[in-house]
Every structure is written in structure tokens, then in C-alpha cells.
Amino acid sequence: MSAVPIPDTVTIHDLSGEWVMDKARSKGIEEAMGIQGISWFLRKAIGLATVTLKLTHKPGSIETLSQGTGVPMSVAETINLDWTERDKKLPIFGAVKTRNREVTVQSSTTSLEASSYGADAAAVENAEDLSWLLADWIRGEDGGLEIIESQVLSTDAGWVSHQVWGFEIIDGKKEHVRKVVLWKGAQKTRAHLIYQYLGPLKA
């Protein structure tokens, strides 16, 4: 299925539809998987696979179904948007603690708070990282911004991620983007992930 323009009805409050990562234009994927401890063999398999994300966005949560071609994969997950910490066991990543929320950033001068996950989180995730997470999004005329924020701690592998979802204008088109700051100890990287819209969910 080919990508189509994102309609105005698709917003940060309703991401329902089918999506696929644009690997050619996304950045930092390989570096992030390395810090997460994913083996070279599995990284290559993931790189060759096409994973379709089927999102059903409801008030307070997003139901996700990831289905892959090239690797046997069908993973369902509920992303709760109430900023309550939850323990999960995820394929590939193992045991994690995670929290997610919808955030309204009132102005371009407002910043996010550093993740409190990990003993050295504040030292590793700096003000420049937090500014980058809020940069380049489509904002309202008043400078306001609506995003989804996600923080994850891997209790198995020890890495931490701070992620923001939103929309950017890239090459003149509205694109769904997820920006990630990820670190483990002194290792840190950023990822800029672009997702193409394939259309509404099929009945």
C-alpha cells in the first residue's frame, strides 16, 4: 500500500489509521538499537522488514497492532495516556517501565522536564536534548503545541528513552514524526522517525 497525504482529521488526539516508518528518511535507528542491546543479526532483520502500525486512538489510550513482513511479528499493545507508570513485557525489548500522556505546551518558551528514570538521567538528558524534543513541530498561531510524550525505562537492559510524537512540515508536506532521546550510562543518541500514513483502518 502506498502512502497518502495525512488528512486534517488525523491529529495528535486521533492518530487512528495505518502507518509505516519511512526508513529512508528516518535517522538514528541503528544507533538507538545498538544502545538498546539488540543484536547485529536482529538489527539487520528489522532493517529489512516492513512493519505496519495499526493505531486505534480512543479517549485516554491508543491501541497499537504492529504487523511485520520479513520477520514473523504481530504485537498488540495498549498505550495509556494518563502518565501512570506501568510495568510491561515487550517483544525484543523485554521488561520495561513506561508512562505516556497527551501534553499541551502553552508557548514556544516552555520546555519539558528531564526524565526521572535512571539514577543518572538528569545528568545525561540535558537542556539541549529537551529543546530538541520540542523543536520544529507544527504549532498554533499562539505558539501552543499539542504532543504525546512517552518515557521508558528498560529494567532488563538499563536504557532510558524520552520520546515526543507530533507533526512536522517536511519537504512541504505534513508528516507524523516521533523524536527520541535514548541513553544508557554515558552512551546517548537521538532518533528522528518519520511515519507515512497509509490510510484509515480497514474494517
Automatic annotation (TrEMBL):
List, alphabetically, the PANTHER family matched: LIPOCALIN-LIKE DOMAIN-CONTAINING PROTEIN
Protein name, UniProt field: Uncharacterized protein
**The organism of origin for this protein:** Dissoconium aciculare CBS 342.82
